[in-house]
Amino acid sequence: MNTNFLQTPIDYLKGVGPNRADLLQKELGIHTYQDLINLFPNRYIDRTQFYKINQLQRNNADVQVIGQIIDVKEVAQKRGKRLVARFQDDTGEMELVWFRGHKWIRESLKIGKDYVIFGKTNWFNGKYNMPHPEMELLEDYKKSLRSAMQPIYPSTEKLSNKGISNRVINKIMQQLFTETKGKFVETLSDNLISELKLISKSEALFNVHFPKNQELLAKAQYRLKFEELFYIQLQLIRKNLIHKSKIKGFPFTKVGDYFNTFFKSHLAFELTNAQKRVLKEIRNDLGSNAQMNRLLQGDVGSGKTIVALMSMLIALDNGFQACLMAPTEILSVQHYNGLRDMCNNLNISIKLLTGSSKTLERREIHESLENGELQILIGTHALLEDTVKFKNLGLAIIDEQHRFGVAQRSKLWEKNTSPPHILVMTATPIPRTLAMSVYGDLDISIIDELPPGRKSIKTVHRFDKNRLKVFRFIRDEIAKGRQVYIVYPLIQESATLDYKDLMDGYESIVRDFPMPDYQISIVHGKMKSADKEFEMQRFIKGETQIMVATTVIEVGVDVPNASVMIVESAERFGLSQLHQLRGRVGRGAEQSYCILMTSHKLSSDSKTRLETMVRTNDGFEIAEVDLRLRGPGDIMGTQQSGVLNLKIADIIKDNDILQHARYYAKKILTKDPSLKNQENKVILNTYSQITKYKNIWNYIS
Ligand code: ADP
Ligand code: MG
């Protein structure tokens, strides 16, 4: 069947009509024949087996029975009525029950005819009953295309209330296959099909909707999942290639004095191999003609900042400006202080711009940015304001990119006539699979090695009732000269209550750790930024030993002498947050500890999160668990969830297929970037169809 035919509106299909079409559109987004074919079953039920009524058991599983209706009546109940049909076979009797939609059901039921009924059974008033059974006349059942593996389609309450049951969808699907004669245009090239030993498109579609057996179903699913992931990868990789060929970047041809002097004389430590490798990748990008668009992933503490700085120095060496944007004021200030110190002897002009910069300061920054005197600007979102104009921004770095949206990324682009090179850094590792699908248009560098000498952080889970012991431990650590974080959850919706928890906690800590022996800092979101900064500085300088805080310190804060992280109500934090928090310690040479405090009541997800934290320090492993617990949509936020709107593949379970798909997409595009070779004609056609009918671009970025 040709593809245009598949764009026919669903109303035209026999058995659908305007009302059903409307429902299918609204509830399942099915507009065309094509959409219907791509409505894939969620699961399959094995309907090879039939039960006799006297074989039914009280386990409430799906069963299938053949029998006849003896009579039908309405029975009054507390609210409204229910419709009850007596149903029998040669071994006994049971009831079929409907709580809704009585009229048309009653009219359609045929007394004395053989039916196949299917559904879950309940035991009630000494009999089995089956509420809202799926049913079909035995003679129709025998005639239908139905296979033993019965597909169960996605549905909604509204659909089933309006009589579009799974069986109806199944019938509509049969009709579609009859009208199309089950022939569909092949969408993968012969090469791929033979190399991967795939079944044809038509065979796959047939077997996914009407599987003949398990084996064919598995082949059908593999083929369709591969295809789906293949075309997404093809588009992402193609977009990346087009981007590279079209968007000219500023070629940073040389590595000059700033970089070399820093590298030779001011670098306080030897770079790790991972840092060296990543720097090389970045240098290659910057030196090429294309604009860099790179994601730098590295676990907390892996040393991304130094990579950022050295990249900025390359920009400066080539006469360009650079900027570094961080999501919070605290983090910007810290970056600013750290980088300023590192550049101390290099004679570089570097400034900080945040929401709390004073007007006069701002004006100076704006001026010196525009005339090019200012070389490095560090700050928060304030960098994105329209008044911030660069003379020649060559490199923009975004730290903790997951906190910024795509829109903000692109705003940085517009800071120049020609887009600057972009490096986004994230310490919340995105599982590789997800990164590949979501950021397929970015190149990815990974720092997968921590600086030497780090002791891995010891993590334990303690219940609230052991608080005294925990406090004793804190005292011991402080006696050794260490510092301690105690973090409370502050979650927007219940902010007032959380705030009270924080203050109560603070007071009790002040009681248990009295002055003058102990000095305590407190930092939370409701404080003025000057006060926050003051308290932070006291802690950084070691004037206070305990920092009581909310998650404002989650990101990036670097106090190497702090060796204990206590997380209060840890069950309320997500995995990536816990991992970020833990990353605040273990930054110095001392053994560090993370203590997760919880109440006794824990959900199973909370337990998994805590166990995971105790078991591993590996951010990538944690990210994988997080992905399994929360699902991809939640992790990436709604903005990007479109990418994960897959029809048949599952980004978590089908990771292997994704890798295959990406491998082949890359291989094909490397050999034939514009897909103009005869052997790739089918791929090009399909690709054009996909982009024509469903603008995938907007679902990718
Ligand atoms: P993150 O990747 O979390 O941003 P940072 O850049 O803040 O990590 O680095 C964490 C700490 O490790 C900093 O104190 C930094 O100076 C130090 N560091 C970074 N690279 C190295 C290295 N190669 N050797 C030793 N220490 C390093
Ligand atoms: Mg950092």
Tell me about this structure.
The structure is a single chain. The protein is 42% helix and 18% strand. With 701 residues, it is α/β, with parallel strands linked by helices. It has 4 domains: 99 residues, OB fold (Dihydrolipoamide Acetyltransferase, E2P) (Beta Barrel); 87 residues, no CATH class; 154 residues, Rossmann fold; 159 residues, P-loop containing nucleotide triphosphate hydrolases (Rossmann fold, 3-Layer(aba) Sandwich). The longest helix is centred in the N-terminal third of the chain and has 33 residues. The protein starts with 16 loop residues before the first helix and ends with a helix. The structure holds adenosine-5'-diphosphate (ADP) and magnesium ion. The site of adenosine-5'-diphosphate has 18 residues, from helix 12.
List keywords for this structure.
single chain; about 700 residues; alpha/beta; OB fold (Dihydrolipoamide Acetyltransferase, E2P); Rossmann fold; 4 domains; seven-stranded mixed sheet; seven-stranded parallel sheet; 26 helices; 22 strands; globular; disordered C terminus; binds adenosine-5'-diphosphate; binds magnesium ion
